[in-house]
Amino acid sequence: MRYETSVRIHAPAELVWTVLRDVADWPAWTSTVDELHRLDDGPLAVGNKARLKQPKMNTLVWEVTELEPDRSFVWRTGGPGYGVVAGHYVTPDDDSGSRAVLTLEMTGLLAPLLGLLTGARSRRYVDTEAASLKRRCEQRA
């Protein structure tokens, strides 16, 4: 299963990136994250890990695997037979706005089953996160 959503945000890309990269603050602005604890100090970087608890889902440890400063990060989690990769991308859209793209991909032997069991909820969570990010950034702009 692969899912992608995009949202136009009436706030500068720099602000959107600041909100997005502060993963420890996500529980304050999106209902799809109950708890998020960084397992590393300092700015978000490749190799950093975070323990993430979402409603109706198991607590998982996510590891940052890609990071382009001021633009994007990708992190992944998984277990025996499956992997989940989530991408977070920010680009300027015009003089005062930006666009955020959020992606989610399930891979591995168990991905089809995982998609059946959690796919609808996962897609709903990605959509909620995009809408929540928009709301948070536009309130701060």
Detailed description of the structure:
By secondary structure, the protein is α+β, with helices and mostly antiparallel strands. The protein has helices spanning 13-21, 26-29, 111-140, and strands at residues 2-9, 35-38, 49-53, 60-68, 72-79, 82-92, 98-107. The mean pLDDT is 96. This is Polyketide cyclase. InterPro entries: Polyketide_cyclase/dehydratase, START-like_dom_sf.
List the helices and strands and how they pair.
Layout lengths: L1 E8 L3 H9 L4 H4 L5 E4 L10 E5 L6 E9 L3 E8 L2 E11 L5 E10 L3 H30 L1
Antiparallel strand pairs: 1-7, 2-3, 3-4, 4-5, 5-6, 6-7
Helix pairs in contact: 1-3
Based on the model shown, name its key terms:
141 residues, alpha+beta, Alpha-D-Glucose-1,6-Bisphosphate, Chain A, domain 4, 3 helices, 7 strands
